[in-house]
C-alpha cells in the first residue's frame, strides 16, 4: 500500500482527524487538525505511516497501549491521549455546542468539568482465553482483536490491583476461545465482577471460580449472566451516606467525581421543593440524594436496579418517602396528568434519550427540570421539544467521565417560563 501525504482539516465527533479528499472525508485516527502526515488509505479510513509537521497540541500519550505505534495493536479504550488538555477540553465542549446548534439552541455552554487518570471505578473489559493464558483488555478500535493490557491509566488503583485476580477468574470461567465481557465495579467491600457473553458455565467451572475467589482477597462478588456465582461480601456503593447494593453488572456512573458533579448541579437547580420525580432512576444515584430534601418518585425499567434503590431507601434513616415504579418510559412516559403532582423532574435516559417523556413534560406545568445525558445529539432533540413549549434553559454543563474518549456527559437545567 503506498503512502500519501495529507493535511488534517478538522476533528470528527469520534475524535478522529478528518482530511477532505476529492471524493469525501477520510478519517485518520490519532491525528490532529493542521498536521501533515503520510497515511495509507483504505476507502475512508487513513492509517498514519509517518509524521511530517505535527500540531502544537500533540503530546506524548500516557499509556504504552495507546496509538498507532502500540506494540501488539493499539488499545481501542482511548482515542485522544495524544491531545493536550486545553485542546481536548475545548473539543469535548464543542461537541455539546455543535449538537445544540444543530437544533437551533444557542445558549451559553459551561466549561468542561474535567476527568483525571485513575478515576474510573467501573470498567468493562474484553477477555478471551488463549493457549498462552487469558487476554484481558480492550478491543482494538473497529476490531474484535483484544489488546491485552499491562497498565491502564484510566482505571482506579483498586481495579488495577485486581487485574491478576480478574485474569484468574476469567481463566476459570472460559473453556472456549469465545470472547466475553467482564464488567468490574470497585465498591466499598471489594470488586464486583459480572461476566457476560459466555454461553454456559458447568458445575466444574462454577467450582473453579468459587475456589479462585476464596483464595484471593479483594473480590466481593462474581456473577455470570446476571446470576451470582459467589458473593463473599455484598458489594456496596456509597451515595452521600446511603449504602446501595447494586445488582450484578448494574449501571453506575463510571466515576465518582462525575457523579458528584452531576448530583451537585441537580441539587443546586432543584433547591427546596416538596415532590420530585427521578426518571430512568437506575439504582438511585439521584433519587437517594434528593430524598434528603424532598419526597421522590423513582421510575426505572430494570426491576433489580429498582429493588436495590427501594431497599436502600427503606434501610436509611432520615430520608423523605421514596416510592418506586417499574415502567418502560419509552412506551409509557409519565403523562401530563401524573406529572402535575411534581415540583421538579430529573431525567437521565440511555443514549436514545427521552423523546416521548419530553413530549409529556412539554405539556406539563412542572416548574424545574434537570436533563442528564450521555448523548449530546439526543439531548439537543429533547431540549428542543421542551424549549418549543416554553421551558427556558438556565445552564448547560459538559462533564468528562470517559477520559481520553469522545464521550461527553451533559447536565442541562430548565425552568418553566
Ligand atoms: C444512563 S442510566 C442512568 C441511571 C441513573 N440515573 C444513574 O445515574 O445511575 C439510564 C437508566 O435508564 C434505564 N432505562 C433504559 N431504558 C429504559 C426505559 N425504556 N424505561 C425506563 N428506564 C429505562 C436503564 O436501566 C438505566 O438504569
From TrEMBL:
InterPro entries attached to this UniProt entry: MeTrfase_TrmA_AS, NA-bd_OB-fold, SAM-dependent_MTases_sf, U5_MeTrfase_fam
Entry binding sites for S-adenosyl-L-methionine: 253, 280, 300, 348
Assigned keywords, A-Z: 4Fe-4S, Iron, Iron-sulfur, Metal-binding, Methyltransferase, S-adenosyl-L-methionine, Transferase
Location of the active site: 374
GO biological process, one term: rRNA base methylation
GO MF terms, alphabetically ordered: 4 iron, 4 sulfur cluster binding; rRNA (uridine-C5-)-methyltransferase activity
Transferase found in the keyword field: yes
Highest taxon of the lineage: Bacteria
Pfam families: tRNA_U5-meth_tr
Cytoplasm as UniProt keyword: no
Assigned protein family: Belongs to the class I-like SAM-binding methyltransferase superfamily. RNA M5U methyltransferase family.
Protein name: Putative RNA methyltransferase
